[in-house]
Amino acid sequence: MRNKLFRKKSIEKLIQENQETSNPLKKVLTVKDLTFMGIAAVVGAGIFSTIGSAAYNGGPGISLLFIITAVTCGFTALCYAEFASRIPVSGSAYTYSYVAFGELAAWIIGWALILEYSIGNIVVAISWSSYFNNLLVHLFNIHLPDWMLIDPATAKNAFIESTTALSSGADLTAKKIESYQFAINAYNAAPTIGDTKIFFNLPAFIIVALVTWLAYIGIKESKKSANFMVYFKVAVILFVIVAGAFFVDTNNWRPFLPNGFEGVLKGVSAVFYAYIGFDAISTMAEETKNPQRDMPRGMIYSLLICTGLYILIALTLTGIEHYSHFNNVSDPLAFVFEDRAPWIEKIVSISAVVATTSVLLVFQIGQPRIWMSMSRDGLLPKKFGQIHPKYQTPAFSTIVTGIIVGIGSLFIESDLVTDLTSIGTLFAFILVSGGVLFLPPKIKEPGKFKLPYINGKWIIPILYLIFIYTFQDRIINAFTGFHLENTVEVLFMVFLIFAALISILTFIRNYSFIPIMGVLMCAYMMIEIPLVSWKWFMVWMIVGLLIYFLYGFRNSKLSKEALDYN
Question: What region holds the Cationic amino acid transporter C-terminal domain (predicted)?
Fold first, then answer.
């Protein structure tokens, strides 16, 4: 049983199967296209939305978190690049885990990647709807009915909060009273079926349908669209940075860490959510002209460019506006120019729509290709691997992805899945980083990427001791005040034990520094995510395991090959 659960695919077999595919995907992507796809996926809702809540918690020091997150993703990106240079096959972390850890781990990571791509895209679609509505109101004075712009849970919560606040007699600002009254009026104006108020996010559904159609008709068309959107939004972001520099007040950068480093770390989910798209490049291996050379470059180039943009934007925003003013601000870039330069706010609103559209596109391309790979291995029905004879895209998988994201964006509350998406992505990053350690040695070939080996024998244990010294107060408090209800500190203690074991193994086995750092830094970021998201993540994993044992385990291609051999 154990051998069946952890049966692996060899790199040679994967490449051979890919070459024998009867209806291959179009090879049209270059290193420039991959870099642009990476930027398209990373520069989106994070820079236009979630950076606001992160700035409120961490102040100007949020720029440090972007650096920490970028370094974490950098270690992981190098590990992705190593896999991509060896395995030029679609499937991303799913395929890589199949080679490194075996079938069960591959299924788990494939199931977790649904959180990153499909579920994560629901959040992006909802953000797009908010920006689009803002654009309609401020540029064209068009007001859509409020019940067409919001999910049921958010509408109900806003109504309850508003009625409670207004009836409490608390001293409220005129702007706060106006927003509360607006929420109450919007709730009361919604149509009803029986006693149920009707709310749904129609613009989010429409953009998902349009982007799904674009992903369906071909990678060449998607590439051109993504490249255009990247040019536009990067130009706008650079313009915002330059224009914003004239409004920066350096006094707003003091104190740099108003809530200490713990305040900075509260923004982990929001900031990391901004970075999760760079691995989408790895799903496009079969559509890349020279994947073993260009995919590693595309990942690293896009990550470096996006990190620079994020740091500059973070410093610009917190320099223009005091960090404390970003509480509950969903559109921080537009917010800082609202009173200072309204015409810039309108440009930002247009760019936000374009930026989130490009993220939707790349993720809608990525998810079907993962399902296609899982279908080829027999873990999903054959229909998921079906390639359209004309457009040469995974047609059925693209449609299913569109349906899941479209329906989800109509009714699901965005806050519910942001943290969940980050957990799924970090989990994938840990397996990819750790998986590199299990690959056979490879000689450096001209024109191909090879992960440099840096012996972590002494470096990792020393860094662990430095970590212990830096967080000594938290460690003492965690152990002296230990109780199971304090879940944050329980997770912290679990990480300490895990990191200690990894440090010992690295010392004994001379593990490479880069993949070990990828594992440890992603693991630490996971423990900073709220417990409620962990609970939902466990539920998600249990459902995935049930599907695997009811279908995938019995229909696995490797399983059938073993039976035929016997």
Answer: 513-556
